[in-house]
Amino acid sequence: MHGIPKKNLVAAAGLLIVFGLVRLPIEHNVDEQLRAGLFTDDNIGLPMMEKLGQDGFAAALGGFRPLVASYYYLIAHHNAFDKEEWGRVDQQFGLITTLQPRSGHYWDQYVWHLGWNAYAWANNEADYQRRLGNEWKASNLENITAPGYLDRAVEVAERGATMVGDDWRFYQRVGFLYEDKFKDPCKAAEWFQRGADVGDAPKFMGNIAAIFLSRCEGNEDEAYPLIAERYWNPAPGRRAVTVLIQMEALEDRLAQRELDELGIDAVRRLVASAPEDYLHSAALARYYTEVENSPEKAMGVYEGMVRSDVRVPSFYKKKWAMLAAGFPEREKAAYATLRTELEGTRWRLSEEEAAVVRPLEDRLKIPEDARLFRAKKKKIRQ
Question: Do 207 and 230 contact (CB within 8 A), yes or no?
Fold first, then answer.
């Protein structure tokens, strides 16, 4: 990112200050009226004056805090992208969010700088120091400084959540922090759901919360109805591929749990006594595939599922086809099913699917330009 020229920064700061001084009498009147109605906080106290330091004159603007916060926001960005002084950035955003504690945007940017930019800087600097042979510095940056920025981002997020109750974008930022940096889908789901509960939050916040919850081990019972609702009742004209993938993954986990908790004999009895609950059949097919290693028996179960009067997810057709692809007499039928089930819902094959589909297309002599998903050609280095 290009830095902010110093003359532009000084000019911008000057304009902001002049503009603030001109508007000060008007703002003072408005501020008094707002304070009388308990709409604003009291004037800045001694701790804030200490934080402002040499620029303490800015505190004299009293109720004109947004202007002061904007000024320090410019300074913080300058320190971030021109100087990479992340300690100063942390201090300045602490000041900014104290001046404007209800602004979700400032808290969002605070978390972003610490959790992404400062964290990336520390790891990049560690790589640089390692190339110079400074292993001790590299190790400190990698194992202390970088994780410290993430921990600090979490502290900021927790504090910001007590101040910002109506900005779903802030919760989105923190949710992605947990997903991207901590690989913690459970906490990510929690923060996305908090954002989804905000009045004007878009629908996708709830969708993402459900998807992350479905990846959280041990929360299958809570996540399943949320994902199932989005699978069976998608937005008009489309179903999110991620919802389809998570629905399949959840049903696999639920089927395995049933096998682990009840045993195969109880599962067989449930298949016979409660055929309307297709998850019992899914557990039985899983047993035949994973334990008994009998693809023919599993194929029979899947075939019965998709031909029954019970509504089942379409991916069970794919599961049948993946097994049928191993039998020469069923290859063509299997491939036709895979084209139907994968082509319209995926933009790529999973590793497991590719291991079945690509050899199948080779055996069926499918032309390259007609293949389900063409393999990317490797670039030849000159």
Answer: yes
Q: How far is CA 76 from CA 36, 48, 103, 217, in A?
A: 33, 17, 16, 40
pLDDT digit string, tens, across residues 33-42:
434 433 334 4
- Give Cα separations from 143 to 46, 129, 147, 351, 375 (angstroms): 37, 13, 6, 33, 39
Which token pair is 270? 């449930």
pLDDT at 234: 86
Tell me the residue type at 282: A
Q: State how far the Cα of 72 lies from the Cα of 16, in Å rounded to an integer.
A: 11
d(CA 113, CA 153): 8
Beta carbons of 138 and 129 less than 8 angstroms apart: yes
Q: For residues 76 and 84, what is the distance between their CA atoms, to the nearest angstrom?
A: 10
Q: pLDDT by residue (tens digit) across 181-224?
A: 999 999 999 999 999 999 999 999 999 999 999 999 999 999 99
Share of the chain residues as helix, strand and coil, in percent rounded to the nearest 5: 75, 0, 25
State the greatest distance between any 2 C-alpha atoms of the chain, in Å, as a whole number.
87
Instruction: Please report where in the chains the tokens 């199948």 appear, as a residue.
Output: 360
**Average pLDDT over the chain, rounded to an integer:** 85
| pLDDT for the residue numbered 270 | 97
Could you give the CA distance from residue 133 to residue 23 in angstroms, rounded to a whole number?
A: 56
Mean pLDDT of 343-357: 85
156 in Cβ contact with 91 (< 8 Å): no
Burial class (CB in 10 A: 0-12, 13-18, 19+), 5: exposed
Which residues lie closer than 8 Å to 266 by C-beta, 6 or more apart?
none
Rounded to an integer, what distance in angstroms lies between the CA atom of residue 374 and that of residue 354? 10
Query: Does the CA dihedral 191-196-197-201 come out positive or negative?
Result: positive
C-alpha dist (Å) from residue 220 to 224, 247, 260: 6, 11, 15
Q: What are the backbone angles phi and psi of residue 327, rounded to the nearest 5°?
A: -115, 115
The rounded distance, in Å, linking the Cα atoms of 94 and 101 is: 10
Tell me how far apart the alpha carbons of residues 189 and 274 are, in angstroms, rounded to a whole number. 33
Question: What does the pLDDT look like over 138-168, one tens digit per residue?
Answer: 999 999 999 999 999 999 999 999 999 889 9
